[in-house]
Amino acid sequence: MDLALPPDTPGHSSAQSRYHVYVQVAMILAVITGVELLLIFLPFPKALLISGLVTLSAVKFMFVIFFFMHLRWDKVFCTILFFIGLVLAGGTMWALHSLFSVANSIPLTFQP
Amino acid sequence: MSSTAATATLDHHHDPSTTTGIPNKKLLLWAFLASDCMFFGTLISTHLVYRLHPPPGNPVPTQVFNIELTSFSTFVLLMSSLMMALAVNAIQRGDLKAMRVSLLATVFCGCIFLGCQVSEFTTFVEVKHVTITNSIFGSTFFTLTGTHGTHVAIGVLWLGLMYIRSFKPAGEITGGRMLRTVVHVAVFAAAAGLLFVFIVPGLISLFVEGSGLGAFVHTTALPLGGEVAALALLAWLGRAAGPVDFAVANANDVESMGLYWHFVDIVWIVIFTAVYLLEYVLPAGPAH
Q: Does A103 touch chain B (CB under 8 A)?
C-alpha cells in the first residue's frame, strides 16, 4: 500500500490527495486492532506476545501522530516538542517502575 | 476569496507571521499535548505498578473486563480519528458542508465510545462490585480511564462548539442570533448527553447483555424521545441561512481541535494495550 503523497499539481492539491491516505491509514489501524485482539488468544510464548502487543501499539501510535496529526508534513519543531513530552513521560514511567520493583518497595502485603 | 483559490494559495503548515513559522494556536496545542503526555504517563504507571504488585483483595481483571466491548470501542475511537482527519481535510479544501458532516460523525463516534465506557463502569459497579474505593485496582483503573473519558467528553463538547461556530453569520450579530446560538449549544449538549448516558448503554444492554426489548424500552423510551426531538432541532438549526463567517482561513482552528482529539485517541491506544490486553497475557500476582 503506497502512503506516499503525490506532489501538488493544478487542480489536485495535497489536501485532496491526503483524503485517500487518511482512509488507508484508518484501515491499517483497524486491522492492527483486530490482530491485537486475536494475539491474546493465541498460545504463543509470553515474551513474544508482549513484544508483539507493544510493537503493534507503538505502530498505531506512530501512524496516528505522523499521519492524522500531520507531523509528517508539519515543521520538525512540532515533532521535537511533542517527543520532549513523550520522552519525559517515558522516563517517568521507567523511573516509577524501577523504584517500585526493588525489593524494599514491594508492599508488605504482597508476598509472591 | 473563493475556496478553490484559497486552497491553491494557503500553506496550512507554514505561517509567515510567526517567528517559528508555526501558527501560534497549533504550537500552544502541541506544548499542551506534550505536558498531557506526562500526566497520562504517571496515571498509567501508577496503575501498572499496583498491577505488578497487587495487594490482597484485588479483583482478577480478566474476570471483570469485557474485552470484546472494549475492542469495539477502541475501533470506534480510531474511526472517530479518521472522521476528524477528514473534517480538517474538508475545511482545508474549503468544503464547509463536508467539514460539518465529518465533525458530526466524529461526535457520534465519540458518544458511542463514551456510552461504552458508561456501560462498562455501570457493570463494574453494579454487577462486578468493583468501585473506586473498595480495591487498589478499582482506584487506579477508574482514575485512569475516567480521566481519559473526561478528555473525550471535553473533546465532544469542543467539536460541538466548533460545529456551531461554523454557522456564525457573516454580517452583524444580533440579539436574536445570539439567543439562537445559545439554543444550538444547549440542543447539541442534550443530544450528545442523551446518546452516551442512556441510549448507547441501553443498546449495549439489549444486544450484548441480552436484557430484552421490554427492559430497553422501559429504561430508554424517554431519552430516545428526547434524542429524536434534539436531532430534529439540530437539523432545523443547521439548515442553510445565508453566508457564514467560517472558511479556509479557519482551518487552523479546526486542525488545533483535531490535534487534541487525535491525542485522546493515542492515549487510548496505550491504555488499551497496557491496561486491557496485557492482562490476558501477563496475569499479575495471586488470584483472589
A: no
